[in-house]
């Protein structure tokens, strides 16, 4: 499964609240156990970040997005693209999210 984690602070690898909080995305392939940081796309000025970022993640074959508190617009755009999402204030760091995915505690 291809997973995207919204990263707010790349140095600390802290998980952001919503798509628009992203400074980068951490892409994680849970089958191959491979991590990759991808930069943010350059969005058309008229497009909202939630739309632009959702399409970008779909282009990267992302199946599920993890963030701390996705807003209704982000959830709607992800749903439209058939990308699942999971949000919880307990997602503090990318490593914590990945560890819990690997332990099958979150999906």
Explain what this protein looks like in three dimensions.
The chain is of the alpha/beta class and 107 residues long. The chain has three helices and six strands; from the N terminus they run E-E-E-E-H-E-H-E-H. Strands 1, 2, 3, 4, 5 and 6 form a six-stranded mixed beta sheet that branches. Strand 1 and strand 2 (14-15) form a beta hairpin. Helix 1 runs parallel beside helix 2. The chain is globular and about 40 Å long. The mean pLDDT is 91.
Individual helix count: 3
Radius of gyration: 12 Å
**SS content category:** alpha/beta
Distance between the termini: 10 Å
Sequence of secondary-structure elements: EEEEHEHEH
Mean pLDDT: 91
Helix content: 25-40%
Topology of this structure?
Blueprint (H helix, E strand, L loop, with lengths): L1 E8 L4 E2 L8 E6 L4 E6 L9 H11 L4 E4 L4 H9 L3 E4 L6 H9 L5
Parallel strand pairs: 1-5, 5-6
Antiparallel strand pairs: 1-2, 1-3, 3-4
Task: Jot down its keywords.
alpha/beta, 28% strand, six-stranded mixed beta sheet, 3 helices, 107 residues, globular
Provide a short characterization of the protein structure:
The protein has helices spanning 49-59, 72-80, 94-102; strands at residues 2-9, 14-15, 24-29, 34-39, 64-67, 84-87.
